[in-house]
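Notes from hallway chat w/ T.B., transcribed later so I don't forget. T.B. wanted the structure written out for a chain they're using in a teaching module, and asked if we could keep both sequence and structure tokens in one place. Agreed to drop them here.
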Amino acid sequence: MKIKSIVLVLSSIALLYGCSSATPIQEVKNSVSAFDGAFFDGETIEVSSNDSGLVEYRIYQHASDGFEGGSPVRYKAESRANIFCKQRNMASRTIREQAAVPPYILGNFPKIELTFVCEPSTLRIMTETSGGAKWQQLEALANLLERGVITEQEFKTEKAKIMASE
């Protein structure tokens, strides 16, 4: 009977431990990379640049074992970043990522750290204002230009479309 109890307890612990875990989302300037000092430092990829000087955030997600794979871990991190920015009426854009590389053995489990920014979403702003007055659409468009999300040429093209619409 005691052995069954021990097996049941250990199985429960293993089941709970088998879930992936993550750190809270933090500003890059106020946090340290989870890869700093790690035995397996992974691979860093520059995805885009932050020329606008937007606040950069860091998110870290890892699996507790090598069976989960890298794709689900990446999906969870990207989903958390998207939710974080959506709560601020913005969209996330990845600046840099650092991820573990296979083989996933001896403690080198799938993990990823994303550095991202929250920026205005062109699609969301245009969709929300498309039924409104022309000046609201133009104001949203000017905001995108001012923040560097769109170019001067894109601004002129979209402005012409708005002015031509009835």
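Follow-up for T.B.: The chain has two domains: 19-119, 122-164. Might be a good example for the class.
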